[in-house]
Fold each of these.
Amino acid sequence: QVQPVESGGGVVQAGGSLRLTCVASGSIFSLYTVGWYRQAPGNQRELVARMTRGGDTNYVDSVKGRFTISRDNTKNTVYLQMTSLKPEDTAVYYCNLNNPFRSRDYWGQGTLVTVSS
C-alpha cells in the first residue's frame, strides 16, 4: 500500500517561507521518482519539482532558485522547501510518487498554500 500524505501548507506573506512534507507508506520508496505538483483555481495541475531515485532534479522555471526538493529515504519522506514566496505560488500542492517499474502514480490529498500580497 502506498499512500502519500502532505502537510505544511498555510498562509504566508509574500517573501516568506514554508516547508511542505510528504510521508508515504511502502517498502520501496527509495526506488520511486518523487515530485511536487500544484493546482491553482481554474488551472491545470502543473509539475513544480521532481527528483529521481538517483538524485537528479527538475524545477519549473518559475520556482528555480526559490524552491528545493529533497528526500529522506530512511523516513519515506519528501520535502519541498519554499522561499521568497510570491502570490502566484498560491495553489494546492500535491505530492506524487511514481513507480517506474509498474508505471503507477500515487497522489496525496493536497495541502493548500496561500501567499498574501
Amino acid sequence: QVQLVESGGGLVQAGGSLRLSCAASGRTFSNYAVGWFRQAPGKEREFVAAISWSSGSTYYADSVKGRFTISRDNAKNTVYLQMNSLKPEDTAVYYCAARRGYAYSTAGSYDYWGQGTQVTVSS
C-alpha cells in the first residue's frame, strides 16, 4: 500500500509559478505510474498530467500543455508538478495519484490518492 502526500500549494498571482510535490510513504514509487488531477468547487475531477515508470513518458491535458511539467525523482521517491504561467482557471485542489502499470488519464484507474493541496491563482 502506498500513501501519498502533496505539498507546495498556495496563493499565487496570475502569471506566477508553483511547484507541487508528491511524496510517497509506505512504499516507493517503483513500478508505479503517477498522475496529477485537480478539482475545482462544483466541478468534476480533471486530469492534469501523468508520468510512467518504465519509460518516463509524460502526458498532459491540453489545458496545461506547455505550461506545466511533470517529473519524478526516483531516488527521492517524489513526483513534481512544475506549474508556470498560472491562470485563475487553474485554481483547484490538486491531487497526486498512483497506479501500477501504464500512465492513464482516467482518475478511476488510479489506486492510491493523496489528500490534495490547494492552489489558488488570483487575477
